[in-house]
Amino acid sequence: MAININKFFRNDRTLILAYDHGLEHGPTDFNEKSVDPSYVLDIALEAGYTGVVLHHGIVEKYYKTYFKEVPLILKLNAHTRIGYKPLISTTVCSVERAIRLGADAVGYTIYVGSHEEPEMLTEFSSIVEKAHEYGIPVVAWAYPRGSGINELDTDTIAYAVRIAMELGADMIKTYYNGDKEGLKWIIKNAGKARLVIAGGEKIPDMQFLKRTEEVLSVGADGIAVGRNIFQSKRPFTLSKALAKIVFHNSTAEEAARILPER
Ligand code: FBP
User: Is residue 79 classed as helix, strand or coil in its secondary structure?
Assistant: First the structure.
């Protein structure tokens, strides 16, 4: 069956709002507003994001009515920051349940280089096989991680992306380390899979807009951002500025004109 990821694209670019942090990082990532999933879904809807990333519990209780206008990537695995544990992102939802809940794609994190990587490779492959049988695209979080691993080394990121591509990912999310030439090589290694850049820790809004302009200019297909939006003091206008860069090729300077203060 042909797998179509176009639902997540507008003008051949994608802008995804990630909101799986409550599980991945804990509530310290949130403020009084962003702790409420409805608030974050409002941002996604109003700013015209072409995708949102959620775990199934939030989907069941919040992803309803008009929020469904924003296509859904349902995250199938999770890893928490609390306590000591192996570096494996555990499967917490099945492909079938994701489909029943209205997912347009499923997402899965692979910690490439971790001691537990083999399990994640096997599981990811099974998920790709099953999701593709149902015609559902798969988004891989290809994150180098583990003892002795330099998470931001260009060749290591390229290797992580290559692994996800060869195992059948339709879209791959990974880090940007600031190496523009390196990103070109990373994108080449994604092949026909689409490549999106993760947001990372909160940086000043203008810096984030510039970083977005940069990765798109090199050839990334879009960005998947979380903290840089919902930890911003102006998540709605910042999202609209981002959309100008992503979908309309505005420069960061042009896009920033809509921000109340710089
Ligand atoms: P951010 O834009 O906030 O970095 O979100 C992207 C993301 O991949 C989330 O989907 C996920 O919860 C988080 O980063 C994982 O963060 P970490 O790199 O700490 O594992």
Answer: coil
Name the closest-CA residue to atom 14, ligand 1.
200
Query: What's the CA gap between 100 and 56, in Å, rounded?
Result: 10
19, 49, 75, 173: which is the annotated catalytic residue? 173
Structure token digits, residue 157: 């990121």
For the chain, what are the domain ranges? 10-256
- Over residues 164-221, the pLDDT tens digits come to 999 999 999 999 999 999 999 999 999 999 999 999 999 999 999 999 999 999 999 9
The verdict on the CB of residue 221 being under 6 Å from ligand 1 is no
- Residues 198 and 227: their CA atoms lie apart, in Å, by 10
Q: Give the architecture-level CATH label for domain 10-256.
A: Alpha-Beta Barrel (3.20)
- Contact between 41 and 63 under an 8 Å Cβ cutoff? The reply is yes
Is any ligand 1 atom within 6 A of the Cβ of residue 29?
Answer: no
Give the nearest ligand 1 atom to 20 CA.
Answer: 12
* 256: Cα separation from own chain's centroid: 23
Any atom of ligand 1 within 6 Å of the Cβ of 104: no
Q: pTM (2 decimals)?
A: 0.97
227, two tokens: 């903290």
Closest CA to 246 of 203, 204, 208: 208
Q: How far apart are CA 87 and CA 80, in angstroms?
A: 10
**Quick one: tokens of 77?**
């695995």
Report d(CA 226, CA 46) in Å as an integer.
16
